[in-house]
Specification:
heterodimer; A: 95 residues; Alpha-Beta Plaits; two-stranded antiparallel ribbon; 22% helix; B: FAD/NAD(P)-binding domain; D-Amino Acid Oxidase, Chain A, domain 2; 8-stranded mixed β-sheet; 17 strands; 36% helix
Chain lengths: 95, 432
C-alpha cells in the first residue's frame, strides 16, 4: 500500500488554517446520490476519503491545486473550487 | 491600487510572462498579478524548454537563465511488464551551441523570467489571487483581487491563469473542462549526484537525456510516462487522460509508484532522494477543444486556451508564442489608438491561425478522439511489439521463418488482418 502522506511530506505548504479553498457543496449529494465517488481515488493528493457510512470527507491541507476533483465531478457538480488566498497553499520548491 | 493600466496580465507562467514582458518592453503600462509567493511557486511542468519561442522575445536568454541540461539524446520506450522496446536518437550535433532544447526547473526558471518582466518595466504583484473580472456591460474593464481595496482597471486583461482558467469560466466565456480533454500528470523529482547522472545516462557536462514512455505503465489508459535528466536530479512522471483515471479506478500516485518499480526504470532512480511530488492537469483536447480566446477587453493565452500540442509534447513554447502574439496585438491596437473591443482583438486569433500554433493543432485535431476510441495503440500493440522482439531475440533452435509466422499470428489473433489495416489507416489519417 502506497502512503500518499509520505510523498506529500516532501512538499512545502502554507496552510490557510480554517479557510479551505475547496468545499463540498452539499455533503448529502456525495453520501446519497453519488455512487462512484471518483474524487476518492482520482485526487492525486488523496484529499478525499469515504467513511463506512458512505460520506465523503475533504481535507485540503495536502492539495496540489490541480483541479482534478472539480473536473471529474461531472454528474453532480458538487465541488466548489477556488484558488487559495494569495500566498497560501502549495509552494512548489521545484515545480 | 486604483490606478489605470494599459494591460493587466493574470498569471506568471510562460504565457503570462511573455505577454507582460513584450508589452512592458514596448512601453505599455503593465500590471501582472500572480497568486504564488513569487512567480514560479505555483507552476508545474515536466519540464522541457524549447529555445525558439523564448529566443524570439529574449534572444540572449542563455546568458543568465537557469537551464539544467541541453538535450542530446531522446529515447522512446514501449514497455510491457518486464521489458521495453525502444528507439534512440542521439547526436553530437545537439551539443553544438545554440542548443535547441533544455530541461528546466520551473520554480527557478519562472523566477528568472519574472525578473526580466520587472526589468522591462512591468509592475509585478505576487501573493495576490484574482477573484473575478470587472465588467462594464460586455467589456472587461479590470479585475477584483483578494487584497484590500483590491480592484484594478485596465484597457485589456490578458488571462494567463493556467489550465483551470477559472476567471474565463466564472465570466461565462467558456464551459467547464471535460475529463476527456485533460490529462492528469503526476511527477516526482529525485536528486542524485551529478557524476551519477553522467555515468548512468552516458552524458558529460550539461548534456542531458529524455525518455518518453508508453505501454503497460499506463495500465490500459491513454497516456505516457517520461523521465528527464536535470543537472543534479531526474524528474519522473506519468500522465493519462482524466476520463481514463475515472474509469480505471487507479490512483494517480499508485500508477507512478508501479511505473517506478519497472525493471528498466528502477535502476535509473536507484539511490536518489525524492524531494517533491507534484500533480498538474494538461489541456490535451487539441484544436476542437479550443475555447473562445478573445472578447471585449480580454484575451486568453497559454494553457487557459488549451494551447498544448499533446502529440509532440509541446506546451510551454505554445504558451510563450500565444503570450507574445497577444501582446503584439495589444501593442498594435494601442499604437493605432484603437479600442480593445472583440472586433479589434480578433486580430489575435487571426495571427494565431497564421502561426505554427494553430497550424500544428489543426493538423492533429483528430488525434485525441482517435486515441480515445482506439485503446489498442496503448494496450495491444505495445504488448505485441515486445512479444515479437522477445521471440526474435531468443536463440532457441527454432528457425526464423517459424518465428516470423508465430509473430504474424499473434498480431492477427489480437487485431485480425482487417483490424491491422484499419489501425494503420487510422494512424495515417490522424498524423498525415
Amino acid at each position: 500500500m502506497i502512503r500518499i502522506e509520505e510523498k506529500l511530506f516532501q512538499n512545502r505548504y502554507r496552510v490557510d488554517a480554517g479557510r479551505s479553498h475547496i468545499e463540498i457543496a452539499d455533503a448529502n449529494v456525495c453520501a446519497v446520490q453519488c455512487k462512484e465517488k471518483f474524487c476518492t481515488f482520482c485526487c492525486p493528493a488523496g484529499c478525499y476519503s469515504e467513511d463506512n457510512a458512505g460520506r465523503v470527507t475533504l481535507i485540503t491541507d495536502g492539495c496540489l491545486e490541480c483541479g482534478t476533483c472539480r473536473v471529474i465531478c461531472t454528474e453532480h457538480r458538487n465541488v466548489r473550487w477556488e484558488y487559495p488566498r494569495g500566498g497560501y497553499g502549495i509552494l512548489f520548491k521545484f515545480g | 491600487m486604483s490606478e489605470h493600466f494599459d494591460a493587466i496580465v493574470v498569471g506568471a507562467g510562460p504565457a503570462g510572462n511573455t505577454a507582460a514582458y513584450t508589452m512592458a518592453k514596448a512601453g505599455l503600462k503593465v500590471l501582472q498579478i500572480e497568486r504564488g509567493e513569487y512567480s514560479g511557486s505555483k507552476n508545474v511542468q515536466g519540464a522541457i524548454l524549447y529555445s525558439d519561442a523564448l529566443e524570439r522575445v529574449i534572444p540572449d536568454f542563455r546568458e543568465d537563465a537557469p537551464l539544467e541540461r541541453h538535450i542530446i539524446e531522446q529515447r522512446v520506450w514501449v514497455l510491457d511488464d518486464e521489458s521495453y522496446l525502444g528507439g534512440t536518437y542521439r547526436s553530437a550535433d545537439f551539443s553544438k551551441p545554440p542548443h535547441n532544447r533544455y530541461t528546466i526547473i520551473r520554480s527557478q526558471f519562472d523566477r528568472w523570467f519574472s525578473q526580466k518582466v520587472r526589468d522591462a518595466g512591468a509592475l509585478v504583484v505576487c501573493e495576490t489571487t484574482v477573484l473575478d473580472l470587472h465588467m462594464d456591460g460586455r467589456q472587461v474593464v479590470g479585475v477584483r483581487t483578494d487584497r484590500e481595496n483590491g480592484s484594478v482597471y485596465a484597457d485589456v486583461v490578458i488571462l494567463a491563469d493556467g489550465v483551470n482558467s477559472l476567471l474565463a469560466r466564472k465570466a461565462g466565456f467558456h464551459e467547464e473542462l471535460k475529463p476527456k480533454d485533460v490529462g492528469l500528470a503526476v511527477k516526482e523529482i529525485h536528486f542524485l549526484p551529478e557524476s551519477t547522472i553522467e555515468e548512468r545516462f552516458n552524458v558529460k557536462g550539461t548534456e542531458g537525456v529524455v525518455i518518453e514512455m508508453a505501454g503497460k505503465i499506463t495500465q490500459g489508459m491513454v497516456g505516457t510516462g517520461f523521465l528527464y535528466t536535470n543537472k543534479e536530479s531526474v524528474t519522473i512522471g506519468v500522465g493519462c487522460l482524466l476520463s481514463d483515471f475515472k474509469k480505471s479506478g487507479i490512483a494517480p500516485y499508485a500508477l507512478l509508484e508501479q511505473m517506478k518499480e519497472h525493471p528498466a526504470i528502477k535502476p535509473l532512480l536507484a539511490g536518489g532522494e525524492m524531494k517533491e511530488y507534484t500533480a498538474h492537469l494538461i489541456p490535451e483536447g487539441g484544436y476542437n477543444a479550443i475555447p473562445a480566446v478573445y472578447g471585449d477587453g480580454w484575451l486568453i493565452v497559454g494553457d487557459a486556451g488549451m494551447f498544448v500540442n499533446a502529440v509532440h509534447r509541446e506546451g510551454s513554447n505554445l504558451a510563450m508564442t500565444t503570450g507574445r502574439i497577444a501582446a503584439e496585438t495589444v501593442i498594435d491596437l494601442k499604437a493605432r489608438d484603437k479600442p480593445m473591443t472583440a472586433r479589434n482583438l480578433a486580430a489575435y486569433r487571426a495571427a494565431l491561425d497564421e502561426s505554427f500554433v494553430m497550424k500544428d493543432l489543426k493538423k492533429y485535431k483528430d488525434v485525441p478522439d482517435i486515441m480515445d476510441r482506439n485503446r489498442q495503440f496503448f494496450t495491444a500493440y505495445p504488448n505485441l511489439a515486445s512479444q515479437a522482439a522477445h521471440t526474435l531475440l531468443t536463440v532457441d533452435g527454432v528457425d526464423k521463418k517459424t518465428k516470423e509466422r508465430a509473430i504474424r499470428k499473434t498480431f492477427t489473433r489480437a487485431r485480425t488482418t482487417f483490424g491491422l489495416f484499419a489501425d494503420a489507416f487510422k494512424l495515417w489519417r490522424a498524423f498525415e
